[in-house]
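Open question from group meeting: does this chain pack into something compact, or does most of it stay loose? Before anyone orders reagents, we agreed to write out a predicted structure and look at it together. Recording both the input and the output here so the notebook holds the full record.
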Amino acid sequence: MNHKVAIIGMGYVGLPLAIEAAKKYPVLGFDIKPERLEELNKGFDRTKEVSNDELAKASNLKFSHDPNDLNTSNFYIVTVPTPIDVNNKPDLKPLISASRIIGSQLTKGDIVVFESTVYPGCTEEDCVPVMEAESGLKYNIDFFCGYSPERINPGDKNRRVTDIKKVTSGSNEEIATVVDDFYKSIIKAGTHKASSIKVAEASKVIENAQRDINIAFVNELALVFEKMNLNTLEVLEAAGTKWNFLPFRPGLVGGHCIGVDPYYLTHKADSLGYHAEVILAGRRINDNMGRFIATQVVKMIVGKGINVSQSKILVMGITFKENCPDIRNSKVFDIIKELKSFNIHVDAHDPEADREEVKTVHNIDLVENIDPNYNAIIVAVSHSEYSKIDWTQVKTDQNIIYDIKGILPKGLADITL
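Structure tokens returned:
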């Protein structure tokens, strides 16, 4: 098939995919943010997923924020965010908006593939009716759909988009083959063709729900072992000597995948009259870890005889994961919020995060230097830069170091999660 590809959403998922697809096909990278496209046209990707050199070499890739420029495309890929609202309910506004934009440009024979993480049934129950209404075309007669869940791992330079096997699907057998062939042509790791769009949607949402539950288990162990004065990492290390023990570590579970996707699955379950118990229990544990960590730090400050409201704390790392500038749904901000509720002065340091974005979104001014003269230092994210620090110069008799990620040399941290 003579694919003319349009990728909707030039973020962490869409841009790397566009770069790879443009090696084989003409690609239009569409985004509603002109400033984002202006940066990309200048060869700068603030997500750090794509290098300047890769952008410069992508001669088949053009960018636009004008929906009318989509009308020459025949193979659409949707990679917009699918967040949750303040009540942990799916927020489909970006997805529905993308469906409207595509629907306004659809012509007979076009294929629309969704990569955004959703609950099973969302593509055909929520997105398709919008495209039908906008286009006047009939689904599976005039236009067709597919679903191929994104598997981008932000900040990972070893497992990039082409290195991770891709699940594919289509709205009928013929389209499933067309979608699968498209991804086979750009994904070195190969593909797995699912039997239906719903199966592919479900496969994605349970990937992260499974990981969320496993982390919740070890987080709960940390809560229990703290009351027993046991070092959780030492216990996990001992248990890990058995060949089939899963090597999960306690920690903060944020970002736009693991901390979000389970709520899409439980939302769908609720709509069918089933209340998910294990999945939501895992979410409750993980969502409360920021408060637990902050409380532990406050207890240690009190134990040193320091006036809590006069104390100063440095939080090192505020992005949702290491070596990545993405601050969306980072649970580090839960720690900061909880500490500030005790009237503690909190500073934050992060070599990856965008200073302006942090200031705009969270009203936090990142500090430039790591000063040992804080009452407590919380190492919240294991950025590579932090592993290069001489921690013997940071640790003093006067401060407390809480190593959430377990990156300090053994014995230096006062407490690890």
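Observations to bring back to the group:
The longest helix spans residues 197-227.
The CA atoms of residues 220 and 242 lie 21 Å apart.
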